[in-house]
Amino acid sequence: MAKKSTSSKTTKGERAAKRSRAGKPIRVGIVGLGRAGWYMHCPELERRPHKYAVVAACDTVPLRRQKAAERFGCKTYGRIDQLVADQNVELVDIATRSCDHFDHAALALRAGKCVLLEKPMAVDYDQAKRLRSLARRSPGELYIHHNRRYEPGFMHVRRIIDSGILGEVYEIKLRRLDYQFRGDWQTLKRFGGGQLLNWGPHIIDHALRMLDSPCKNIWADLKRIAAVGDAEDHVRIILTGRNGRVVDLEISGGAALGEPTYHIFAAKGALSAGDDYITVKYLDPAVKLKRLTADPATPGVAGHPPMPNHVLVQGGRAPNSDEVKWIEETFPIDTPVRCDLWDEVHSAIRCGKTFPITLDESVEVMRVISAARAGSKLYRRRR
Asked: What would you measure as the largest C-alpha separation in the chain, in angstroms?
């Protein structure tokens, strides 16, 4: 087979330039007017009237279509193929049930549309790889809605880690814990329910970013505790990077008591963060500690002083304990530079900038999700 004379990246850039209409809002067609589409995406688009205009909406429920027409003055459709055929739609915003994401995104990409796809990008790793392949061949671009990449707490914690004040990070704990007697479609496997496909893409994406290395090992445990469906509502995953860093994440709808959202352990300190505040404790970099060597002698024998009682109780020796100075601070979560997924999509479509959440990163999230399911009896196929 003959090779193309130009790279797909260059071709896509040229096509993006042709689509670009500088200064004009991107014309959006929303597919799915439920919890995510109506209550999240619509308000987010309305806050950016100079960047986005909703020109079409699609839902199977007539009342929802009526409300969309009243809200936006847009065309409405009962089927996604009708919306995708609308020549006025530039960007198809897909916010349907998880089980429909692959088919709906594939339909829009085959029509040459740009697509913003709500997480999860698919229901498993195989679908995700197929969708990535299709997106690479399509004139349109595919953007995955990993919006919590821009969560203030995540961004602030990453900034502290990158500053180096904690030293080399070796373990990270991520938690999203609650207790819910939940019974909607997101508790049913046949619709793509379960915490792995609900909160999972967000927190697994955080974990992979913090792993700071390609993922080497995946261990997982899935349970159904309080939800009334057949999908998991309690997820525990431990990821190990090739650099030795470990990320321990837990997502639960069956945990009656919570834990810090972030807990970071590093060679020179630690960090703990909830929803509003961050606490850090780290060695004062202005204090230079003596270089130590391990002493095999028995304390108190042959001239070696006995250990202080507090060291004996802790089970270790701390010859520098009197010289160590810790700095401990608590401060509100903040991000000096506000970023947003919608703004990044606009910059990619209108300005030709690179969208920072790559398809490879989103596909890797789905690889972890499929690996987590592989050993679970909840997803064991019946023979």
From this structure: 90
**Residue 199 DSSP class:** T
Query: Residue 144 burial (CB < 10 Å; 0-12/13-18/19+)?
Result: buried
If one counts every other C-beta atom within 10 angstroms of the C-beta of residue 135, the result is 21
For the chain, 383 residues long, give each residue's pLDDT as a single digit of tens: 333 333 344 455 555 554 556 689 999 999 999 999 999 999 999 999 999 999 999 999 999 999 999 999 999 999 999 999 999 999 999 999 999 999 999 999 999 999 999 999 999 999 999 999 999 999 999 999 999 999 999 999 999 999 999 999 999 999 999 999 999 999 999 999 999 999 999 999 999 999 999 999 999 999 999 999 999 999 999 999 999 999 999 999 999 999 999 999 999 999 999 999 999 999 999 988 788 788 787 766 666 666 655 554 444 445 555 578 999 999 999 976 667 899 999 999 999 999 999 999 999 999 999 999 998 999 987 54
d(CA 136, CA 120): 19
355: left (phi over 0), alpha (psi -120 to 50) or beta: beta
Is the alpha carbon torsion for 128, 130, 131, 137 positive or negative? positive
Q: Please give the CATH architecture assigned to the domain spanning 150-287+325-339.
A: 2-Layer Sandwich (3.30)
Q: Does the domain made of 8-145+340-358 have the CATH classification 2.40.50.1000?
A: no
Neighbouring residues of 184: CB distance < 8 A, sequence distance ≥ 6: none
